[in-house]
Model the fold of this input.
Amino acid sequence: MNRVLFGHLWRSQRTKLLIICVAMAAWNVFLPVIYQSFGIQMKALVDSGIIPKQLTNFGGGDVFSLAGAIALGYVHPISIILVSIFAIGFTTSAVAGERQRGTLEVLLARPLSRRAVYLTTLAAVLSFIGLVLAAASVGTVVGSTIVGVLDELAIDRLPMLWLNGMLLWGGFAAIGLAASVSFDRLTPAIGVTVAIVIVMYFLDILGSLWPDAKGLQPYSLFHYLASRDILTGVVSLGGLAILAAVGAVAIGVALVVFPRRDLAAPS
Amino acid sequence: MTVGLTKTYGHATRRAHLPGRAATGEVRALEDLTISVAEGEIFGFLGPNGAGKSTTIRLLLGYLHPTAGSATVLGFDIVRDSVAIRGRVGYLPGGIALYDSLSGERLLDYLGELTGRPSIRRAELLDRLELSARTLRRPVRDYSRGMRQKIGIIQALQHDPELAILDEPTEGLDPLMQRAFYAILDDLKAAGRTIFFSSHVLSEVERVCDRVAIVRRGRLVALQDVASLLEHRKRNVELRAADGDLPALDGVAGVSGIGRTADGRLTCQLEGDVGPFLAAIAGHRITDLTIEPAHLEEAFLELYEDTEPEDADGAPTSQTVPPPVAVG
Done:
């Protein structure tokens, strides 16, 4: 871990981080508002049979409660895209992008081990993701307060929800960084990481909407983002352990691969 | 110091049929390089693109891992102590890329802080390379190629490293700035710093270096003092005599390639001691005599013009690459 590099990464991302935190908070303000304003009407619509009941399984299967609405927000593409800007975009370009641009040459000409570069970048991205997810929690509280449903929200469970999100997105960030240290160019690093995230996302969605595909869900890391369960007081330690294990394996791979690989002159 | 430093890419049993691969399926970027650079000298490392110059530098700085052999820089092993080496070395990569969004000043601050040593030479270098405070406040993306190169030189030297490794350092500099840069090198040398200078600009190597190593296709072909290398090169001689009274130079020691031009001038090549040649022309009515000084470029080309068998793809094979011409 290098303090100077950490500070540089923070300075270079601070504007983007601020914008994404505001966007994430705004999105999560919106969810309690939707629940309060349209929840009852939506439930009546689904109960009427116009919308297939199976569709309500998306995001935890309880979209008409506050906890269900918040859980839906965590797996909604808007949330996914906002967090992915750091978990995928930043991580994949952190090493492979610098390598492609040629700036990694200058960085590694300093007395920094590759492990220090990796761990500093990992620490930076985890701090970014942590702030974005914290902004989501803040938005949830603010939104619930605005529409007067704060008493329905288990605020004391938000830290566990944050931790669950951190383990999921930290895992994807670790996968992105492992790809980044393994490739000389940005495109394959992004391609591999995006492919993993998209495939896992669709496995989870498919499993939630189609009963025959339910067996596929455990193969997706999104399956272990149990937002609704956490907000209703159920915590799956096994799920958290799986997310932590995936992140740890990705970190281990990167720590082995990066120091050992040759960094030929950029073309 | 390097001992038998070797770097190969590829796999011995795979893809041997592909173009650009040696018969074994391996590409030998550097083979059995043994050189020693003395403290306080300016050491030139010469060779055309792809000869192995950058590979050597990248091995020394830990970007690449050697396939065989070993090397130490400032007494530190290049594999075990790479971080310690980079703490004492200033490195200018060839065709340096910089962080475009930063200002020149912020970039130098950042790289200086990462190095962890005070940038004691920065003000002097900025002055000598004529980079103003106003220029430094502008983002690097607005810099010309020459200005980027100046920033590259400053980031490599601002912390007064014990060893500077400079890869094509004058690329993009105008002649005045090149001269200023050579003066900086002279001062560094006077201060006891060691410079490892990679270039394919022969005239500047001749201008600044004490010794030179020449690599060709990953192998060392010459390692000599610049003065010694030049001394043994042939000089081009051209003379004109009144009334066609040209001297007979056949058999004169050191003279070769004797010829006559259409307008009656005598041309030849002269190697080593000029005494026998001067004795041979004494007594003749010489009206004009030109002896061109030997340039490193000619020495270099002479070494490179040596024919070397190649495999079908143009890559040298281990059986055909000759041993180094001179190591000393």
